[in-house]
């Protein structure tokens, strides 16, 4: 793959323009305001303006929105020379994915007289689906071109909506993390680079890039209660989901710090663990959070999720790379994969305990279907992404902004390594 | 202009103290709680505590507040040595402007028995007016003293409130961007510096300053739906405005990335475009967003706004500087000026289509009045700001924090350029 | 204290695991959902889902949550080599404190049939109590191990809840700042290090660390209206509190800038003042904010708070260190201590004016009790923290991340100071 290949002058504009024009046409044909956003439909019914769902969902939507663009975007800026791409490609593919998800979710989840209805609920669902794509992005971070990522987003959003359709929306939050993680891991497997060691020195953080990543971590951590509760039923359900997630995350943070120190020879905390594993409690409480899990149950779930996640970063990720040839840049298997599966199991058990075992069975089947769809879909889409036409970086130029971004020249002054990252 | 001249030891405290004492006195004489914030007035009526407008406006207010202080503040930190001033002067003039705007907007928009009423609506309107001042700040960024900026804020807020008064609030969001941009451009024209090339090497970004600027960009992008909808009518109107803005921004992001790659010889993305042009969709949907523009219409508007804005940065800004002698540091003409005018035209057309052409005519007249007021006001205020008494920086010390801020000494170690920005 | 001593491999995991397991057990025994989060209790009553308090408190809670984790966390990242610890230890002790506070506040403020009820109100109160601990953290920043901080958090939360119990919650927001500040100052006094000058060169900021700190400052500033109003009565009270705080902060910002320039020989602004003193208006309006203080009164309070705070940083902090042997790293006395006392006095006076002097007397007594509890508690807990078993850093390795965190090696390349903070 040569420099000419990675030149985006035509590839990226053509892809963006075609996709956006298709989106605009399909929106023109298929999309209309729902009852809560349409002037006539809304005023046709007899209710207070204050009953509009905007007031009961929009604050949660904005928290989710911050998680998608700031949370995921900055979480991935930990790489020393890949900050522009992390936050910038996150921005690009999220902007595409939320539009495409609106269409796909609307199409599969029920049209209204041939039309897709949009409002704050569709915005939240579109952001959720986008979150799944961004999780997959984490697995291939640094090794893909923006065009490749846009292609991935289109296919992944479609398959995610199909998966939701099959599950009749029974999977809830679990599907976001589990689907995103295993889809991304399978794509990373197909895109395996045996000579990735050529850019190994750039596949690490520097002091300030770790600080930027903490902005992403904290916004994800703080707003995860909103994420899990954004679309649950109004009233006590939404309230309880936020509360359970809050406790799960708090307990997870304590076990993450404990495990990070315990697994280091010199007892020093590792920023990778703090930035990622402390969030596993939010993932693991995703399915059962709306049930009567209790704060006690939530804390146990979060506590275990933190332990599992740190152990994954420390011991499992190296094995995934050496044995299974999965180069998982952000360790999404440890943050979204295992905790997502754990969350599904907790959900199945909690549902069985509280109601009929029937509910628990549905949760278990949902997990199996999601894993199958994610792995199969990732395999397929991975091969589509492997076509040598998207301008992917060479093995030596992975984890490097300057391939796709204008970066000031002193950035490259290798003779004076002190100039790196400076003017 | 000498170093003694830029010494702020007396100039800044005197200006701040006089302005704040005047504000306090005028607030004491003129301002009182509105019905929703006054204990007696509120409890006099018979309604639920939950009907207080606080619950239906305050979350939107907080989003707007974040845009004003973090959004605008960090968006301007892209300059390598001007981060303290960008975020710090933004903070100072915003804190002044929101107080002054409360008085001016209250005075011109209707007193109640000789009193100005305040509550969450006045807070949102004051923040909006402040936004207009911060847009103008972007045009003169790096070339002005804090005292000069405070003077600009006082006059601009006053003229902005007069403009709103003339338009009977018909202009809406459009006036914020259009007024702020053309006012600022005219001020920049009057303050033209033929020898600005002396500090040219500082008028650019470094790697980390671009990362900080992305924080500003993303908060503006995420919360723009709240900005456009914060003050629209409750119910479907507010809901629809947020929805339309969301789609306009998403489409704008795709066209911005496309145009940024397309207009670069090597196809590399330019951070200036991503940081700014991707926001043009929010500006352009500002007027028509509350109308039945539809997601389809919103996406077309955003798509075109992104294209126009990138083209402006690439081809128009150099011409503005060389031909019209307007040194527009942040390119506010491309982000707020042209997209603001475009938004006004879209609003006029949409209003004409959906209702009477009468409405469209009002929108068109509003645009003309706003442009006239902004250019005339900017001319006048520019000359007031040109008086050599405010401690403006010399041509060689523009875009430089150390003129007005304590900065650690190693920052200046020019002999070792590697020390710049470090200890 | 040797390097072996600061090794956290066993100390930190044991502390975290024991504390979290105790918490989980106590939550299992004592905690249950309140009426608003429990499926049965909520549906037992006859009301609309929209009446759930979630919709009237949760947006405020999220603002407070951001202040706790981003606000306090990043405000303390100003130190050049202590960013990981500032934001990371803040994260750890806050995650512990909010769980412990839920138990202690629930226990002291009223059990329901032997059970502690949790919901959004308890979440806000727990975050408030956590804020008090983080203020104390600011006083000892850079000189303590994470285990020491966890021990401090457990004791301080307990004493804070006892203090609230004694005051019958009459103190409100004032207690958070006053208790946190004087408790922390007393701990700092007990932990006095006569040889702290050995790490003096690291007890200062660099350019980018000051930029990160401004993120913390601005989030605290923007969301302080939510902080002061989060738990006040619904309706006009909550609305008015937010409004008053907004004006107090705006006025405070003007006086802070004025005083910062005025007290500098060369008239240059000092980032320490801007980052901290501009927030004093939020503290000082904490008690009287919910009363009929009026915007006029709020602005006077904020204006004076900014002046007092800058003067404290400039003239009082050096005296506190040299005469009273209190090494207050973040100057919490100037941001939370004096403005907190001022706020209590303003509250007492306002209460006396508007209602009976009886109310004013209660406020005055509350202040005295809080100061006594904070100083006495800080003394006791300071001695507990002084035990040489927690792995505190040596005098020469204070303000240094690498004691407790994995930091890339080039960070330490003292021979090439340009490499510090880089790869």
TrEMBL record, chains A, B, C:
Transmembrane segments: 12-31, 64-84, 91-111, 123-142, 149-168, 174-192, 204-224, 296-316, 336-353, 365-385
Gene Ontology molecular function: ammonium channel activity
InterPro entries on file: Ammonium/urea_transptr, NH4_transpt_AmtB-like_dom, RhesusRHD
Gene Ontology annotations for the cellular component aspect, listed alphabetically: plasma membrane
Keywords: Ammonia transport, Cell membrane, Glycoprotein, Membrane, Transmembrane, Transmembrane helix, Transport
Annotated membrane topology: Multi-pass membrane protein
Example GO BP: ammonium homeostasis
Positions of the Ammonium transporter AmtB-like domain: 44-387
Matching Pfam families: Ammonium_transp
Location of the protein in the cell: Cell membrane
Biological role stated in the UniProt entry: Functions as an ammonia transporter. May play a role in the elimination of ammonia in the gill.
Protein family: Belongs to the ammonium transporter (TC 2.A.49) family. Rh subfamily.
Protein name: Rh family B glycoprotein
């Amino acid at each position: 793959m040569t420099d000419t290949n990675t030149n985006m002058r035509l590839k990226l504009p053509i892809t963006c323009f075609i996709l956006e024009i298709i989106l605009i046409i399909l929106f023109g044909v298929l999309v209309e305001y729902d009852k809560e956003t349409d002037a006539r439909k809304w005023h046709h019914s007899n209710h207070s303006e204050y009953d509009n769902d905007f007031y009961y969902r929009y604050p949660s939507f904005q928290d989710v929105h911050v998680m998608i663009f700031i949370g995921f975007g900055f979480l991935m800026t930990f790489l020393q020379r890949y900050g522009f791409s992390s936050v910038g490609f996150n921005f690009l593919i999220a902007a595409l994915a939320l539009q495409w998800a609106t269409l796909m979710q609307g199409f599969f989840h029920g049209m209204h007289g041939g039309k897709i209805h949009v409002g704050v609920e569709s915005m939240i669902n579109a952001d959720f689906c986008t979150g799944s794509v961004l999780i997959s992005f984490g697995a291939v971070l640094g090794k893909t071109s923006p065009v490749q990522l846009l292609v991935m987003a289109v296919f992944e959003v479609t398959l995610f909506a199909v998966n939701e359709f099959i599950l009749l929306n029974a999977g809830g939050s679990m599907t976001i993390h589990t689907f995103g993680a295993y889809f991304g891991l399978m794509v990373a497997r197909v895109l395996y680079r045996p000579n990735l060691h050529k850019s190994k020195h750039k596949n690490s953080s520097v002091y300030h890039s770790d600080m930027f990543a903490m902005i992403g971590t904290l916004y994800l951590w703080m707003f995860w209660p909103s994420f899990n509760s954004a679309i649950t039923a109004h009233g006590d359900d939404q309230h309880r989901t936020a509360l359970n997630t809050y406790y799960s995350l708090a307990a997870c943070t304590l076990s993450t710090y404990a495990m990070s120190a315990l697994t280091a020879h010199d007892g020093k905390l590792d920023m990778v663990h703090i930035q990622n594993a402390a969030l596993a409690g939010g993932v693991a409480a995703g399915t059962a959070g709306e049930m009567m899990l209790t704060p006690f149950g939530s804390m146990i779930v979060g506590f275990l999720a933190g332990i599992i996640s740190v152990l994954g970063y420390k011991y499992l990720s190296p094995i995934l790379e050496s044995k299974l040839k999965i180069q998982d840049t952000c360790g999404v298997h440890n943050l979204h994969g295992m905790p997502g599966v754990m969350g599904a199991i907790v959900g199945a058990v909690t549902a069985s305990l509280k109601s009929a075992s029937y509910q628990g069975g549905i949760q278990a089947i949902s997990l199996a279907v999601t894993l199958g769809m994610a792995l199969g879909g990732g395999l397929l889409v991975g091969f589509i992404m492997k076509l040598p036409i998207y301008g992917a970086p060479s093995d030596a130029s992975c984890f490097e902004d300057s391939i796709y971004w204008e970066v000031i020249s002193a950035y490259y002054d290798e003779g004076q390594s002190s100039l790196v990252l400076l003017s």
